[in-house]
Amino acid sequence: MTATFTLGRRINNIVSRLGRIPSRQWMLNDGSLQLQRAGKGKTIIILARSLCQFMCINLTKIPSSSRRGMMDLQVRKESPFERTGHVMVWQAQHTLVWSWDLQRVEDALRAADIDPHKVVCIPESLFYPADEQGLRLLACQEGFEGQFWSDSVLMHSRWWSNPPSPHEWALFQRDIGVTPLQTLSTATTMHLSDQTWAKVTINRDHLDSSMQIERMAYASALLVLAALTLDFTAAWLHAIHETNQQSRILNTLRRQISPLIEAREHALSDQDRIESLERLYPSTLPLELMAAVAQSMPVHRAYLQEWDMQGQKLRLTLAPMEGDLSATAILRSLNSTGLFSNIEGVSSPNEAILTLKLDVTPSHE
Fold first, then answer.
1. What angle do CA 107, 112, 116 make, to 5 degrees?
2. Is residue 92 pLDDT above 80, yes or no?
3. Share of the chain above pLDDT 90, in %
4. Cystine design at 149: which of 51, 131, 277, 339 (Cβ 3.0–4.6 Å)?
């Protein structure tokens, strides 16, 4: 029972993996597409060797950190195409580069209603089994490819539309420095492997111009937004700094003038109390008024018989000690003190007595 269950699970895993195998299509030199293997998921476009250029670059003298950038520059420099697609294989101290006319490949894909950005393009040479040492001639999907391997590294490759002649094969060997020259052998026919014989670095820079412009626009917008954000943040931080600084200055001034403010408040409070006390008393004290009246009376000839003061109204009666009182002289004297106004005489049955009504003049007038 357990063995049957395990076998069934393995079969399911195999089926699941088969279901994820990507489909593969040939792209030939004329741009036509041929199904090489059906599958699901991302489509792999196998570029015929006739569409590709090959070069092997020695990386011995290039620092590791700069190699990828140097390779991209070298590909653009050596490529005759306006737009170049390429893949790389890193082997020991060498980089193997296959490049192609990106515009031509994308046009062919779009003509077949295939989105170029949803497929991966890999040259057919990478699906043939690798070699270790020496020359070999491969029969490709279209034409023939001569290869020279050294220490399991593909050092040189050349493509011919027809089988190379002995002279062409000899020229290929002379160009790459092979000695002694080897005679031309029959081309080898190989089946494509399921996987490439080395890890392939896919170039993701082959976006079409519209997507590049869109990405550049997004990047520019992000840069502008970041700049505005930084500018706003700097201004906000500066404002906070200025506010804190002004607050510290204000607090210092408050501490410095606090005694003055406190003294002023005490002075205003005292002034309020004084004004309240002043309002409780008349503007001129009764004793001061009596003294003024006494100075206005004839010396040793009269006395104050009645004094009646109601607010600012005063009624007084003077009686003679001997002789008659001179009302005119007394009125003139009282008026000259400046303490009284509206002085009037009041008739009395006793003609010897002088009764007067007066208004007390406010002290501020």
1. 55
2. yes
3. 39
4. 131
Higher pLDDT, 220 or 64: 64
Task: Please give the angle made by the CA atoms of 162, 168 and 174, to the nearest 5 degrees.
Answer: 145
Confidence of residue 217 (pLDDT cuts 50, 70, 90): low
| Conformational region of residue 151, where left means phi above 0, alpha means psi within -120 to 50, and beta covers everything else | left
- Work out the angle at residue 152's Cα, subtended by the Cα atoms of residues 150 and 154, and round it to the nearest 5 degrees: 65
In 48-203, the DSSP E strands lie at: 52-58, 84-91, 94-101, 119-123, 134-139, 144-150, 153-160, 188-189, 201-202
What does pTM read for this prediction?
Answer: 0.53
How are beta strands 313-320 and 52-58 bridged, if at all? Answer: unpaired
- Opening angle at CA 147, ends 145 and 152, nearest 5: 140
Alpha-carbon dihedral angle through residues 185, 190, 195, 199, given to the nearest 10 degrees? 10
Q: Going by DSSP bridges, is the β-strand pair 33-37/52-58 parallel, antiparallel, or unpaired?
A: unpaired
Asked if 25 contacts 36 with a C-beta cutoff of 8 angstroms, the reply is yes
Mean predicted confidence (pLDDT) in 120-133: 96
Write out pLDDT tens, residues 153-174: 999 999 999 999 999 999 999 9
The per-residue pLDDT for 83 is 94
Query: Where is pLDDT greater, at 142 or 335?
Result: 142
The token duo for 343 is 């002085």
Could you tell me the two tokens for 162?
């027809």
Q: Which CATH architecture has domain 286-360?
A: 2-Layer Sandwich (3.30)
**What radius of gyration do the chain's Cα atoms show?**
60
Residue identified by tokens 């005490």 is 266
Query: Which of 210, 5, 198, 3 is closest to 94 using CA atoms?
Result: 198
What are φ and ψ of residue 341, in 5° steps? -145, 170
82-88 CB contacts, 8 Å cutoff, 24+ apart = 83/206, 84/206, 85/121, 85/203, 85/206, 86/203, 87/121, 87/122, 87/123, 87/126, 87/200, 87/201, 87/202, 87/203, 88/200, 88/201, 88/203
What residue segments make up the domains of the chain, in order of their start? 1-83+94-127, 207-280, 286-360
- Cα(95)–Cα(153) distance, integer angstroms: 9
